[in-house]
Write a structure and sequence with these properties.
By secondary structure, the chain is an alpha+beta fold. The protein has three domains: 176 residues, Beta Barrel (Elongation Factor Tu (Ef-tu), domain 3); 65 residues, RNA polymerase II/Efflux pump adaptor protein, barrel-sandwich hybrid domain (OB fold (Dihydrolipoamide Acetyltransferase, E2P), Beta Barrel); 121 residues, Helix Hairpins (Orthogonal Bundle). It is built from four helices and 21 strands.
């Protein structure tokens, strides 16, 4: 007879349930495992990255800035009087001290100079005429005084003779007294004439001095007008290069108008634009070097602009020694200023990203050099090409200094 097979069906059902549960558990385990897997490290061509070792030793703190050469001494030449520009030189001409840059015309000034010249000649003629008249008058007075002096001498001698004869009894005593009286009279007259002659000489001198002062005044006015006339021919007064001529031929200019700018090409300085974050360490007197693209010139910081313009501070560097060929105003240059010398520090090359005294992630190569792992590095002071390392690296470590922002999502990379 037939036997029911309920037990066999139940066992098959149980086995199916068990297999399904095991399958579901396996699928869940695999899914969970896959979710926990980290992404594979990307490959980077070693030839495309910048690798440098970390070092220990002296490190020089420097700041760098771009700038231009500018004249150390600039001469702005103004117009000293009104005038119209007749002709001018063009910028770029090398000038001597007496080179005529431009010539102005001023008819009023020319007429004034001519009037001053004729006035001087008239005053000189008046002086010469007065001098001749006074000399003639003084000579007449000297002749009259000389006559009185001669008469006085004769009277004195006659009085002495008559006095001697009277004492000898050879002449009357009255004659002696008359001779003495005449001699005394002429002596008094002689003294008066000499005093009058002295007064006349002083008067002549005073009149001539007054006339001479008038002549000197006219001469000074003439020289002033002549100098103003000469300055219509504009000269630099020093050797240099003509930089600017902001007026045109035919233009009417007034006194005080800037006519030309002259610079001395052998006296230049560098104006460097230093980032404001680095300018705080720059001090007057610090050593600097300026690259003119045709040679490097030593110098020192001469002036620091107190204002910040477009994120930079202007620093003037005074150049020392002979300038290289091609150095001229407005030439683009690059300057480096030495801030400090650190004796014994751990340092590396300056990374593409990373500010001084900040913490950044940098890829450090493993010992084999086939991979690199991101490590956190505490940076210190920075220079133009180097950066101080405070924590995270040790001397001998090799790091990637290139821009690795493309792999910011990865903490490890493979190097091929």
């Amino acid at each position: 007879m037939d036997i029911p097979r309920e037990d066999a069906k139940r066992r098959r059902r149980i086995r199916r349930i068990i297999f399904a549960a095991v399958g579901l558990f396996a699928i869940a385990s695999v899914t969970y495992g896959l979710s926990r897997l980290k992404p594979a490290a990307p490959s980077v061509d070693k030839a495309t990255v910048w690798i440098e070792p970390v070092k220990r030793g002296p490190m020089q703190i420097e700041v760098r800035g771009l700038g231009t050469l500018v004249p150390d001494e600039v001469l702005w030449i103004p117009a000293t009087s009104d005038g119209r520009v007749l002709h001018r030189l063009l910028p770029g001409v090398h000038l001597k001290a007496d080179t005529i840059i431009m010539e102005l015309k001023n008819p009023e000034l020319e007429q004034a100079a001519l009037d001053a010249e004729w006035k001087l000649k008239a005053d000189e003629a008046d002086y010469n005429s007065l001098n001749a008249q006074l000399d003639s008058k003084l000579l007449d007075e000297k002749a009259a005084a000389a006559t009185v002096q001669a008469d006085c001498t004769n009277a004195v001698l006659t009085a002495e003779k008559d006095d001697a004869l009277a004492k000898a009894g050879l002449a009357a005593e009255l004659n002696a007294k008359l001779s003495r009286a005449k001699a005394d009279e002429l002596t008094t007259r002689n003294k008066i004439e000499q005093d009058r002659l002295a007064v006349s000489a002083a008067s002549v001198k005073a009149q001539l001095e007054a006339s001479k002062a008038k002549v000197e005044q006219s001469r000074a006015l003439h020289e002033l007008k002549q100098a103003e006339l000469d300055r219509l021919k504009v000269r630099p007064g020093v050797e240099g290069v003509l930089q600017e001529v902001p007026v045109e031929v035919g233009q009417q200019v007034t006194a005080g108008t800037i006519l030309a700018k002259v610079a001395q090409p052998n006296k230049l300085k560098a104006e460097l634009k230093i980032p404001e974050t680095q300018a705080k360490d720059v001090l007057i007197g610090q050593v600097a070097s300026v690259d003119t693209r045709n040679g490097i010139v030593d110098g020192h910081v001469e002036r620091i602009d107190p204002a910040v313009i477009n994120g930079t501070v202007t620093v003037d560097v005074k150049l020392e020694g002979e300038l290289p060929k091609g150095a001229r105003p407005d030439l683009s240059v690059e300057g480096i200023i030495e801030i400090e010398n650190l004796k014994d520090v751990v340092y590396m090359g300056r990374p593409a990203f990373g500010q001084p005294n900040s913490k950044v992630g940098i890829f450090k190569l493993d010992e084999e050099g086939n991979g690199a792992t991101r490590v956190q590095v505490q940076l210190g002071r920075s220079s133009v090409n180097t950066m101080e390392v405070l924590e995270g690296l040790k001397p001998g470590d090799r790091v990637i200094l290139s821009d690795m922002s493309t792999w910011d999502a990865f903490n490890r990379i493979r190097l091929n």
